[in-house]
Amino acid sequence: MRRGYSWIACLGVAGISLVICGCLRHAKTPPASAGVDTFHYSNLTRQIEVPSSSDATNDFFTSTPRPLSLTTVETQDYYELSLEETMRHALSNTKILKDLGATVLRAPDSAKSVNDPSLVETDGRFGVEAALSAFDAQFTTNTSIEHNNRALNNIYFGGGTRILHQNFSVSQTQLSKTTATGTQFAVKNYTQYDNNNAPGNEFPSAFTTWFDIEAKHPLLQGAGTEFNRIAGPNAVPGLVYGVVIARINSDVALADFEIGVRNFISDVENAYWDLYFAYRDLDAKVAARNSALDTWRRIHAQFEKGRRGGEASKEAQAREQYYRFQEDAQNALNGKLMDGTRNVNGSSGGTFRGNGGVYVAERRLRLLIGLPISDGRLIRPSDEPLRAKVVYNWECSLNEALSRRSELRRQKWQIKKREAELVANKNFLLPQLNLTGRYRWRGFGNTLFPNGGTGEFNNAVSDLVSGDYQEWQTGVELSFPIGFRRAYAAVRHAELQLARERELLFEQERAIVYDLSNSFAEVERAYQLHETNLNRRNAASDQVDAIQVAVDVGDLPLDSLLDAQRRLSDAESAYYRTLVEYQLAVKNVQLEKGTLLDYNEISLNEGPWPDKAYSDAEDREAHRSQPISSPVPWTRGPIVSDGVFPQGSSVIHPLEPEVPPQPQQ
User: Fold this and answer.
1) What is the mean pLDDT of residues 410-432?
2) Which DSSP string corresponds to 83-97?
3) Position with higher pLDDT, 275 vs 460
4) Mean pLDDT computed over every residue of the chain
5) Hey, is 662 helix, strand or coil?
């Protein structure tokens, strides 16, 4: 049965539409000559099933009010929202770190969540606990019972009989443990029961039991705490997943989570200032529309009276100007569904776009901070952008960026991981030389446990504890593959990976210096343009006032006034655009320095543990504070961490505001 897809072209009234029907199985329909109705079978192959789920649709979504649009006539209540409150809503309402690229729908597996570090930590294959479990003690037991009835060719094999009747059972119990040095210990117990008809038996049935204490210690390959903590006791060349590797993976996951939170906070602030600009742009468009409406009304009044200055061409021109500004105002209110300012759209923290109107930008902000998409209120930013001049110290900012960026910390953990993998893989170039030892206590008896009888071999347990029968064995095991082909390949692969990670770190540092340089230059550019556009706006406003007077007395044509009104509207929008660009440029410097979370007074902390965990931690700390006296020298594992990352160690607001100069009139 082949897998296939069926394509059906349907002819509609308005035109031709192509309907794509994909099915995971292609049913083989009977031929028409068979006289069988195939519609039922062909219809089944095109059905799409719905997964069974007990989760009902949340009323939180089904009760969402109609979104605001240009047809909304009722007056809306404003929700004055500060940037600090916006951040608080975003962090408290977020389990999935949302972005503006629709990742949660387009690629849900790549969406970041607050559970990501815990998922890595608790991974049953490569997590820390999974790596530690390789050193857990293992208990195994098994029992088998058999009945034998056989004819033997040799009488000696049957203990004096050629027809052997036997009931036999064996029970095996073992407790094994692998230590951090690679030594394997095992305590084993074997108990056998044998009941047969051999004439040479002392007892018709007898028990044999013994205890083995075994140890196997690697001397070359697999030896030492460094290797076992990196690779684990069950590692093979190229596949090392020990405790050290698992812990580094957890630290990498924490760095990824911090990057996700930082980018999320950056997107939230971008959306907040996008909405601020949308309101200011709307104000400019509405003011221009009202001005054009006033001009049109005055000219229309002269047109109806047939006076000079009210010619039909001028009335039509003023009317066209009004409807043009009306279109701009409607777009500024509702907006178009276009990308807003978001991360990595020209700069790491986001280059300001200012697309979309109030309604679109407001819904975008609601989406990010977890508020209902529509609740009958209209969010309005209450904070104002920064207008004071900010001066950063380049040397200090550069040092902060190279020491605090989460990407660099994540990459350094990757380098530590590759270095540890290289050390572990080099160990596989050594022969496997193991020192083995075994000590055994044996017991034999007519019964297994004491039953009140006397005499030698009355029961196996008493004979065992008497210590009369003891055995020992020691030896050396040596094995190695001729040529070590897999081990050499694993070492070479680890060396190449380490070289790649180091080159990546170099390029990442270079890219960070580049991005920081751009953000520094952007701060200067945005502030200078903010001052320039402030002067431009003032000049455009003065020009409109002057031309209005000249047009009223007939010294200038109407075209001059309409053109001046357009320039004033453009200057007003340009001023607020550069003001928001300056605010985002200051934010982007903090992002490039790696201090954006500190700048917003946000820190990452682990949630509370169960009360029993704190009690266990106190007990462990008490044991750690007591020195252990042992003749066996202890070796320390590899050091991969310099301690806890100091969040908020830098100055939260390393800014030097200056009073901006007064614009030249």
Assistant:
1) 95
2) HHHHHHHHHHT-SEE
3) 275
4) 85
5) coil
Q: Is the pLDDT of residue 444 over 60?
A: yes
pLDDT (average), residues 28-52: 66
List residues bridging with 146 in a β-sheet: 168
Q: How far is residue 281's CA from residue 382's CA, in Å, rounded to a whole number?
A: 16
> Phi, psi (5° rounding) for residue 208?
-125, 130
State the architecture of 251-405+498-607+651-658 in CATH terms: Up-down Bundle (1.20)
Start-to-end CA distance of the chain, whole Å, equals 83
- Give the mean model confidence (pLDDT) for residues 371-379: 89
State the pLDDT confidence band at 23, using cuts at 50, 70 and 90: very low
Give the gyration radius of the chain's Cα atoms. Answer: 40
The torsion angles phi and psi of 594, rounded to 5 degrees, stand at: 85, 20
The whole-number average pLDDT for the span 640-653 is 61
DSSP state of 125: T
Query: What does the DSSP assignment read for 319-344?
Result: HHHHHHHHHHHHHHHH--S---S-SS
How many whole angstroms from its chain centre is CA 192? 56
Rounded CA gap, 597 and 52, in Å?
42
Q: Tell me how far CA of residue 629 lies from CA of 183, 226, 456, 618, 632, in angstroms.
A: 20, 22, 44, 22, 9
Q: Is the pLDDT of residue 88 over 80?
A: yes
Q: Please state, in angstroms and as integers, the Cα–Cα distance from residue 516 to each residue in 321, 400, 402, following that order.
A: 44, 11, 10
pLDDT at residue 268 greater than cutoff 80:
yes
Encode pLDDT of 494-505 as tens digits: 999 999 999 999
Rounded to 5 degrees, what are φ and ψ at 253?
-65, -35
The domain locations on the chain are 4-44, 128-240+432-479, 251-405+498-607+651-658
Question: What does the DSSP assignment read for 176-212?
Answer: EEE-TTS-EEEEEEEEEEEEE--TT-SSSEEEEEEEE
For residue 339, the number of C-alpha atoms closer than 13 Å in the C-beta half-sphere is: 15
Helix 485-553 vs helix 558-593: angle between axes, to the nearest 10 degrees?
150
Predicted pLDDT of residue 654 = 41
Tell me if the pTM is above 0.85.
no
Note the Cα 35 to chain centre separation in Å: 58
pLDDT computed for residue 8 by the predictor: 36
How far does CA 525 lie from the centroid of its chain?
35
Ranges of H-type helices in 29-168: 39-44, 59-62, 83-92, 103-106, 116-121, 128-132
CA distance 637 to 629: 19
